[in-house]
Each structure stands twice: as C-alpha cells, then as structure tokens.
Design a protein that fits this description.
Length: 504
C-alpha cells in the first residue's frame, strides 16, 4: 500500500448495529495495526495478525457479531493493495496449561547407563486466565518417575506465558530406547479445559555399556547390541549410517556374515553430510593400553569427503582424533594417499587426517593407544561430505576393542613415519605435569608450540637444534585454564598437530 494514505483496518457490528473499529485496549495482540488504528505501507510478505480476547473487545456476551475488512486508498497513486487469507475465530479457553516439550540435562543428548538424568519441561498457559498452580508428571515407559505440584507465586503464570519446570526426581539411565512423557493437569485445582495439548513425549536412547571384564569386545554386527548413529555435530537423529547388508555396485555385502554398517546401504551418500557411528561404551583404566581394530572399504570424493576415528573420555563433550598414521594399510604418500587431510572433516585444521579416496576391497585397520584415564570411552566413526560429487561412501565391519593390560607409555615409535612423529601427551587429560615424546630422523631445528583453541600461543615448549632420535619434553599444565589445547611439532618444513585436555 502507499504509505501516504492507503490503509486497511477491521470493523465489527453487534446485532446489525453501526460499524465500530476493532481497536485493542488492554487486549494482547500480535502484529495488530502498525500505524495506530490501521495497517499501512508494505509488509513485504505474509504476516499473521492475532487479536486475543475479542469477546471483551466487542462488549462481552452478545447474540450476533459481524466483522469486515475496510480498505481505503488515496487518489493520486496506487499500489498492489492488500491480501487476506486464513481468517479464523477461536473460542477462548478460560483455563488450560500445555506441555511444550521434554528436555534433558544432557547437552549433547548422548545418554549412557548409570547417568543420573534430570528432565525438564516448558509449560505454557494457553488459556485466558492466570494460572497459580497445577500438577505435572514425568512418566518413563509408562511408570511414574516424578509427580510434582507446581506453584507460581505471588503473581501466577500469566496467559500466553511459559515457565520451565525441572522435575524433582532424577532418572538413572538404563540401556535401550525409552519413551519419556510429561503431562499437566488440574490448573488452579480445576479441570483443564483443553486436554489435547497436556502431554508431550520424546524417545531417548541410552547407549549399551561394555565394562572392562567384558573385553575383548568383538562384533561382526550379526547379533548382540547394535550401535547408535546420529549427526556428529548436532547429535540429532540425522545420519547417513545405516545398518544391514550393503548393496551398492562396489561396496556390496558384509565382510563377515550379512550385516555391516554403511553410509546408506543401497545409495550414494548425501551432499553436505556429517554423520557419526558411535560404538558401545568401554570402561578404561589408567596405565592400560587398548587396541581398536576393524575392517572397512570406501569410495569417497578424494580430499573433500572422508572419514576418521575419534574417541571421547568425557561422554562426548569433546573428541580426540585417533591418528592412524603408520598403522596397517594406511597410505600417506604416492599419487593418491588414502589417509590425508580431508577438507570437510576438518575445515579449520589441515594438520588432521582422515580416510578418503577409493578402496573397493575390505582392508584391515588397527590403532593402539593409551587414554590414561579411569573413565568410560566411546569411539566414533565420523563421515563428512561437501556439496559437490558424491560416491558410495564407507562401510565398517568386524570391530574389536581389546585391553592389552598395563603398559609403558606409548611413544612415537608406534606411529612415526620415516622416524618422524610426536606422541599423544600423557597423562591426558592432565592437571599438572604432562609428557610429550617426539622423534626426528636427522639432526635439525625442532619447535614445539602450545596453542589455545583460538590459535593464541600459550607456550613454546622447545625451539632448538636437536640430534636425530627420540626426545622427551615435560610441561606443567597447573596454571592453564581447563579446556582443549593443541600442540604442534615443526621440523624441516613438516608439521604435526595434536590435541590435549587440561582438567583440574
């Protein structure tokens, strides 16, 4: 509409009487009249306008009410005018509260056995009267976990307002899928007049857990507990990983039996994906070495799309890359190495590597590492793709996780290529002294720098000319703030970067 005279407004008539402007006074409205007593100018798109409590605005209990839209324009110009659609009148609900959603105390929604879980629910007053109290109940798999009286004092929960209730009782997570429902009742001690929206439900999944005395844990996915897949960034139920029998032209069938995990069983993977396949939960001990092994085959756009192994010792709050450099069937050199930097996996950290390219046959991979923590550990097979070409993806089968028992510190010998590499610091996480081991093939200048996660230099651990062979550097992390850090070894134009965790 022209901003200098064109306008539209709504009038009402009671019992065929005179037309009166429908004008809000104390009523709650949304997008109602942008210019005092009318709409004018240009909205640019469809806008929903809401006028609550029309009953009071037109004078209360009247036999007949009629509404009309009035459009007026000026003489000297014209425009597109105005459009109206989806006109609705709702009978007001005097007294009602609604459960909007069910939330947990776990920020990334990865829930593990034994975790005490607190549930919460935002409650909305969708009636027209203030609510001062009501009941809210938490049920899991049909059983009542917590039934709480809720009071809003002294002012009450106003109409169209929302308040989040945290349930008094916690739930100790057990493995499997569980239906979690929250429902409200008895607002102000009376019957809820709109019971259709009282209940909200969500399904949660608790990971299966494997304890130390159950190791070695080996699976060909033919039977037993199956793993969990989710988006590796949002942890929502959005993932390319599928369980069953792969049936693609090149990635076809399982290595053992008929079942495996694959990024889609019968189709190419999607563009711009970030999918995580999460193992069972393993209990690990300080001072023990562990070996993860598996077979896999893959077809992924070289350098852009790829997959990598990560592990977490803090229930998925942070992830550490398992560097497969120097392990069986891992090619770092040649025209098309299958383990190199993958842009979609690590767009901001070119020092990290992942599997990429083409291997149409099942190949074996293994990695020995020492988490150095008394905790529970989870391993993630993470896949990522960009917007360009796609292919058949990544298939995984025959996975084993083994406890190798007490061991000395894992050094660079196990992953150094051509006698060049740096170990994972130990212990990790660290709260005081931590140790780094590195190896260089010939005498040369060595520089090891510690950075925070925004790239600022925290400490130069060493910067000197060193003889060939293995060397050790120690550093006290007591003065560092808890969190994630990186350390980078630079030697003769080559760099290796790894991560470490500081916890106090």
């Amino acid at each position: 509409m022209n901003a200098f005279g064109d306008k539209m407004y709504i009038e009402y008539s009671v019992n065929n009487g005179p037309w009166v402007l429908l004008q809000p006074t104390t009523q709650q409205v949304t997008n109602w009249y942008n210019n005092n007593d009318s709409w004018d100018d240009n909205s640019g798109l469809w806008v929903q306008s809401i006028f609550k409590d029309v009953y009071s605005a037109v004078g209360g209990n009247v036999p007949l009410v009629q509404f009309r839209f009035v459009f007026t324009s000026v003489a000297f110009t014209n425009s597109d005018g105005v459009s109206v659609d989806n006109f609705e009148i709702f009978v007001p609900i005097p007294l009602s509260v609604a459960t909007i959603s069910v939330n947990t105390s776990v920020p990334n929604q990865l829930i593990f056995p034994g975790q005490p879980i607190t549930f919460a629910a935002p409650i909305n007053n969708n009636g027209i009267n203030t609510v001062f109290n009501h009941n809210v109940t938490l049920r899991i798999d049909g059983g009542i976990v917590s039934s709480d009286p809720v009071s809003y004092t002294p002012n009450g929960l106003l109409p169209d307002s929302t308040s989040t209730h945290n349930f008094l009782n916690t739930w100790i997570a057990v493995p499997g899928f569980h239906e979690v429902c929250v429902y409200t009742d008895s607002p102000n001690g009376s019957t809820d007049l709109n019971q259709f929206d009282d209940t909200a439900c969500v399904t949660v999944l608790v990971f299966d857990s494997v304890t130390t005395n159950q190791l070695p844990y080996c699976t060909s996915f033919e039977s037993g507990n199956q793993w969990v897949t989710a988006n590796s960034i949002s942890y929502r139920n959005e993932s390319q990983w599928e369980f069953g029998t792969p049936s693609k032209p090149n990635l076809s069938g399982a290595r053992t039996g008929v079942k495996a995990w694959s990024t889609q069983l019968s189709n190419n993977y999607a563009d711009k994906d970030s999918s995580g396949l999460f193992s069972s939960l393993f209990r690990v001990e300080t001072g023990h070495c562990y070996k993860i092994s598996f077979h896999h085959e893959f077809r992924m756009e070289y350098g852009s799309d790829g997959g990598a192994l990560d592990y977490s010792i803090d229930y998925g709050q942070s992830w550490n890359r398992l560097d497969m450099t120097g392990t069986p069937n891992t090619l770092l050199y040649g025209a098309s190495p299958n383990y190199t930097y993958v842009s979609e996996l690590d767009p901001t950290d070119p020092s990290l590597k992942g599997y990429t390219g083409i291997r149409n046959d099942w190949i074996y991979a293994e990695k020995t590492f020492r988490p150095d923590a008394n905790t529970q550990l989870i391993i993630r097979w993470r896949f990522a793709s960009d917007y360009s070409a796609n292919d058949e993806g990544w298939s995984i089968d025959d996975v084993c996780f083994e406890d190798l028992g007490p061991c000395s510190v894992i050094g660079v010998d196990e992953f150094a290529v051509n006698d060049f590499g740096i170990s994972q610091n130990y212990p990790n996480p660290s709260d005081q002294n931590t140790t780094f081991e590195y190896m260089i093939p010939t005498q040369g200048q060595v520089r090891i720098v510690l950075h925070d996660m925004i790239g600022q230099v925290i400490e130069i651990l060493t910067d000197e000319n060193m003889a060939a062979g293995k060397h050790t550097v120690q550093y006290n992390t007591a003065t560092l703030a808890p969190g994630l850090y990186t350390y980078t070894l630079t030697y003769e134009g080559q760099q290796i970067t790894k991560r470490m965790i500081v916890s106090h």
